[in-house]
UniProtKB/TrEMBL annotation:
<dbReference type="GO" id="GO:0061630">
    <property type="term" value="F:ubiquitin protein ligase activity"/>
</dbReference>
<feature type="region of interest" description="Disordered">
    <location>
        <begin position="1"/>
        <end position="23"/>
    </location>
</feature>
<protein>
    <submittedName>
        <fullName>Neuralized E3 ubiquitin protein ligase 2</fullName>
    </submittedName>
</protein>
<dbReference type="InterPro" id="IPR037962">
    <property type="entry name" value="Neuralized"/>
</dbReference>
<dbReference type="Pfam" id="PF07525">
    <property type="entry name" value="SOCS_box"/>
</dbReference>
<dbReference type="InterPro" id="IPR043136">
    <property type="entry name" value="B30.2/SPRY_sf"/>
</dbReference>
<dbReference type="InterPro" id="IPR001496">
    <property type="entry name" value="SOCS_box"/>
</dbReference>
<dbReference type="Pfam" id="PF07177">
    <property type="entry name" value="Neuralized"/>
</dbReference>
<feature type="domain" description="SOCS box">
    <location>
        <begin position="250"/>
        <end position="285"/>
    </location>
</feature>
<feature type="domain" description="NHR">
    <location>
        <begin position="23"/>
        <end position="244"/>
    </location>
</feature>
<comment type="pathway">
    <text>Protein modification; protein ubiquitination.</text>
</comment>
<dbReference type="InterPro" id="IPR006573">
    <property type="entry name" value="NHR_dom"/>
</dbReference>
<dbReference type="InterPro" id="IPR036036">
    <property type="entry name" value="SOCS_box-like_dom_sf"/>
</dbReference>
<dbReference type="GO" id="GO:0035556">
    <property type="term" value="P:intracellular signal transduction"/>
</dbReference>
<dbReference type="GO" id="GO:0016567">
    <property type="term" value="P:protein ubiquitination"/>
</dbReference>
Amino acid sequence: MAAASDPVELSAPRGPARPAPPPTRFHRVHGANIRVDPTGTRATRVESFAHGVCFSSEPLAPGQLFLVEIEEKELGWCGHLRLGLTALDPASLAAVPEFSLPDLVSLGHTWVFAITRHHNRVPQEGHPETEAAAPSRPPTLLVEPYLCIEQFRIPRDRLVGRSRPGLYSHLLDQLYELNVLPPTARHSRLGVLFCPLPDGTADMHIVINGEDMGPSAKGLPAAQPLYAVVDVFASTKSVRLVQLEYGLPSLQTLCRLVIQRSVVHRLAIDGLHLPKGLKDFCKYE
């Protein structure tokens, strides 16, 4: 892992080409009630409301966003997804704790938070805690191609959740883009990353539907391997990983963006003279 003084700007759109991180996957070590699909990209809690802790298969690189989409919800439980980072190697755990909060956190070197829109933002020095709410949404959100978090820039293209194609999907998609739905709504996209600082520590940031919630934790050990933690807890039943393109977008992505911007409604894509695979990619991704 790169030192804090020489961060690898995976998400910077300009400058010399840098190696992209490998696709994100879930670790083979996880909670007792979790089932990970054969691709390692979907985690489902099959019973109860607990024992749903998952980890990234590899430590994250600086600025690498571990992004999940909430695929399924389950009624009857109180509580939602929890997200964060740990310096503990999942393979070294004698047993995966029942809960990320407080069990995993109590083991030390772990920073996990329950997801809310104005959660756990670290107060800035010289400002009262009441001023530490999540930053207001910039007016350029829907036109700026990158989300800027400290020294990193992340392509916005896949950060925002989307509804399934349907009669009202064009209206629902706007609610995801404006981030006015509950942060743990079905199809919301939530991610975590860390940003190294010159003093050798790092800030942890949580991203909700393309909006940076600000530093959720400070003083993380940037030189140590940091794994993502996803607790598929209570009303959150299943999540899937969303892969990001760092650097220049692929030709496939560029084609999708042109097609999506050329139609009024995603259902109109079905009427285009395009291969079925490309239509499905434009409608669902």
